[in-house]
Amino acid sequence: MEHESSQRQLKRINESIVLHAIRQKAPISRAALASYTGLSPQTLTNVVRRFLVDGFLVESGTEESGGRGRSRVRLELYADGAYAIGFCMERDSLSMGLVDLKGRVLDYKCESIEVMESPQQTMKRMTAYASSILQGDGYAPIRSRIIGIGVGTPGPIDYDKGEVVSPPNYEAWARIPIRSFLHEELGCPVVIDNSSTVAAIGEHWAGRWGTDSFLYCYWGMGIGGGLIAADKVYRGQSGNAIELGHIVVESRGRACQCGGQGCLEAYASIPALLREASAYGEFRDFGQLLKAAEPGTVLREILDRAAEYMAQAMVTAINLLDVDFIVLGGDHVHLAAEIFLPVMKRRIAEQPLRAKVAAARVGVSSLKQEAGVIGAASLVFHELLLGQ
Ligand SMILES: [Zn+2]
Asked: What is the mean pLDDT of residues 174-193?
């Protein structure tokens, strides 16, 4: 039995390597794939054959092999090969969508959630949406290729049970069996993960950064993170790794909603910045605050300070994880990037220890509003497509 399970594990690893290599380098020939992945021709042939038979890959044109006019067939992911429904739960909204294997969003909907809404009501919205896709006429031709449902929720989570544990400002959701409820109602596989991890997986699947390892930093109403290392998600012991927002940036500093003190989130998240800026004016949202934060003003100083805190936490993470690439993501991050990015890049480059190895790069996600839904669907592809 043990032998069988390690065989299966190896198969899963090889499939993961091939799938991610094709995703990043497509269209790519078998020969180029072999030299890029380092897998033996036999292994590669087996994996590619399985993906072609299952309809996850498609042969797309040819390329010259460089000698005697011979040409090589190139491979790429088949967008229609599999679909997943993604849900991204935030404290004040629920986004829902249908995503294809290439990470393209076919259907998207975002509904705001009232503070008083019960988890049961929210889960009813989820089942109503999924049923409209799974049973309605609109997507009937592709229904059989919808392989599962992915859900991203605020953490911390119990990954094995598919539940939220004790989320700050999200108490009603504690220990609600989200996965088993959706599975029973809808009858298809359901995968749940922390929303920052989900966003990191979405970034890995659809972001096309051309790297197999990076640290993802979510910035917005909260601050979170996810780590992709050699195409694998690092979840930690309890499934709650990379809580970037709770790295301490001020010893015995401001109280954080996690119950701790001096956390990054208490200084650099959108609610923290709006709270600090409220002493100098009324700001409805971060966009309004940014507009008023002209260079030389006290508001700009608040944002500059937040950038320094962000940079400090990223330097800590880089020293700890030895990553050479950070992706900043989140609905509003493109607004904050003009202030955060130069400071983060400068501080990271200044680190004498790292400078001797290689300076880490920082990029800003180009996935917009649908990022959470793409991430939740990618979680399904990541978990269910491989090693079956
Ligand atoms: Zn905290």
From this structure: 93
